[in-house]
Write a structure and sequence with these properties.
The chain is built from 11 helices and 12 strands. With 503 residues, the chain is an alpha+beta fold. Helix 1 packs across helix 3 and helix 3 runs antiparallel to helix 6. The longest helix is centred in the first third of the chain and has 67 residues. It starts with 25 loop residues before the first strand and ends with a helix. The N terminus and C terminus are likely disordered. Its main location: membrane.
Length: 503
């Protein structure tokens, strides 16, 4: 029995004919859209971006240490005692303190804040590259499964018609019971493939939404077709991995981390350097109620040093009371009355065994630097190994595509011959389904090879620290893909009906 068998299977697999499922919000996306959405919705990137302001604030805080510290103070004293004369004292003054020398500690603190900001920038770049890679891999998986699902869905529609015709032939006595059961078995095989494909696409879509941080009720519809829109180029063997590794943000971060640790170590190693603070004051006081009227002014020099675990604080204070009686507030001794003229006091405090942890902190800092250097060397080896693995995967995927192309074309030729035999009644339905199943599997292998190659290029770009476009291995152009499937489609290879009718 000659069936009017029109097989335009592969044309229906293109993205343009993907049907919208059910209801709900539909979001049309391509490879650029999904990356932009994922980066925009990323909680990690937002968190890293927010932290940038912290390091700018730290740097500004440290810069303020170079500026003089200004303060206004008021001191009042009132005594109303029994059997003694009442007394009252008021003092208002402005004070100024300036850091003169700190052994470079503040400079290194500013440098450390700058390095931490650069580290934060590298963290952002690393997170951004990782998110872009993962979402592109999820999108490729989604495209591949979407293509396979659409292919099997269209095949099932045709098989249903073939099944009906087979049942009619069985009732008419043209098919035996064995042939009917054999056909049923082949149909169940393809149904099983369709079921697995449907489950795979749902899982791939959920994974893609997770990578994009999208609600699960948003339905995604890809604009791209993995075999129709991607142009692949043969990988080059002239990639200088060592040169590219220098651009890796992970290595840049490691070097910045070592530099920051060394900066912090400079602060620890300079513990013995003195800190010198110069200060002064001007104000007025009065031995009575406000307003104040007697001028007072003076200066002070503060010195902080450390020798081993012993710390020292010394100060030199000198002032002038223009008239009346003033009160000089001496730390540790309380207020002291001074008369008209010059007054001064000096103090030195040695705190023995005050900082017993200084040597441990220095040693811990040295260990941290050594660990960071060792980790950097290990990171270089790891990154180089991952890059070579990506290259190997890339070359393997290219060979898989080459073999899959040949296999697909051979199965397409066999399927095409089987179609002609089936149309002329020289082949059973179950035998035709054998050829069709093999063609479906070979197309699935080709699709898998394409997605693996594109994924390998993305991983290679990630491991080299460059953009995907810079490698010149994959280019996306609508309906201009260079897969054998797309080339045969454009040539009308699968339009069997016209050739059969001509005969």
């Amino acid at each position: 029995m000659k069936l009017n068998y029109i097989f335009l299977l592969f044309f229906c697999f293109s993205v343009s004919l993907y049907s919208l499922e059910d209801s709900g919000e539909v979001l049309l996306v391509d490879s650029v859209d999904i990356e932009e959405i994922a980066l925009t919705n990323s909680v990690i990137l937002h968190s890293i971006t927010d932290r940038r302001g912290i390091f700018k604030m730290i740097s500004a805080e440290k810069w303020r240490n170079y500026l003089p510290r200004v303060g206004i103070s008021y001191f009042g004293l009132k005594n109303t005692n029994i059997n003694q004369p009442d007394s009252q004292y008021n003092d208002i003054r402005i004070q100024l303190n300036q850091l003169v020398y700190d052994g470079g500690e503040n400079f290194h603190e500013i440098e450390s804040a700058r390095l931490q900001e650069l580290l934060n920038n590298q963290d952002w770049t690393i997170a951004k590259n990782k998110i872009s890679l993962e979402v592109q891999k999820a999108y490729l998986k989604f495209l591949s499964n979407k293509f396979k699902h659409a292919m099997l869905t269209k095949t099932m529609e045709r098989i249903d018609k073939l099944h009906i015709d087979s049942e009619l032939e069985a009732k008419s006595g043209f098919n035996t019971e064995l042939e009917r059961l054999e056909l049923e078995s082949k149909i169940r095989d393809i149904e099983l493939m369709s079921l697995k494909a449907f489950s795979a696409i749902r899982l791939a879509e959920i994974d893609l939404k997770k990578q994009m941080n999208l609600p699960l009720n948003v339905k995604l519809m890809p604009k791209d077709s993995i075999l129709e829109d991607y142009i692949l180029f043969q990988p080059s063997e002239l990639i200088n991995i060592s040169e590219y590794l220098l651009k890796k943000p992970e290595l840049k971060k490691s070097k910045l981390a070592i530099e920051n640790l060394r900066t912090r170590q400079e602060i620890l190693d300079s513990y013995w350097k003195p800190k010198v603070i110069l200060g002064g004051y001007y104000g007025k006081n009065i031995n009575g109620p406000l307003p104040v009227q007697n001028d007072v002014f003076g200066f002070n020099i503060g010195l902080q040093t450390q020798l081993g675990s012993t710390t020292n604080q010394s100060s030199l204070n000198s002032g002038v009371q223009s008239d009346g009686t003033g009160i000089q507030r001496i730390p540790g001794y309380g207020p002291q009355f001074v008369g008209k003229g010059e007054n001064a006091f000096n103090s030195t405090n040695f705190n023995l065994f005050d900082d017993l942890s200084y040597s441990r902190k220095i040693y811990e800092g040295e260990i941290s630097i050594s660990d960071a250097i060792r980790n950097q060397r290990n990171l270089e080896i790891t990154l180089e190994a991952e890059t070579y693995k990506s290259l190997e995967k890339l070359n393997e995927s290219w060979q898989v595509i080459r073999i899959s192309n040949a296999k697909f074309y051979q199965n397409a030729e066999a399927w095409k011959s089987a179609i002609l035999k089936f149309e002329r009644g020289f082949m059973k339905s179950s035998e035709l389904l054998n050829f069709e199943s093999e063609l479906l599997r070979s197309l699935d292998d080709l699709c898998l090879g394409y997605s693996s190659y594109i994924e390998a290029t993305y991983e290679l770009a990630y491991n080299l620290g460059v953009s995907n476009d810079e490698l010149l291995l994959v280019r996306k152009e609508k309906s201009k893909g260079n897969s054998i499937f797309n080339e045969l489609m454009k040539a009308g290879y699968f339009d069997v009906k016209g050739k059969v009718d001509q005969k």
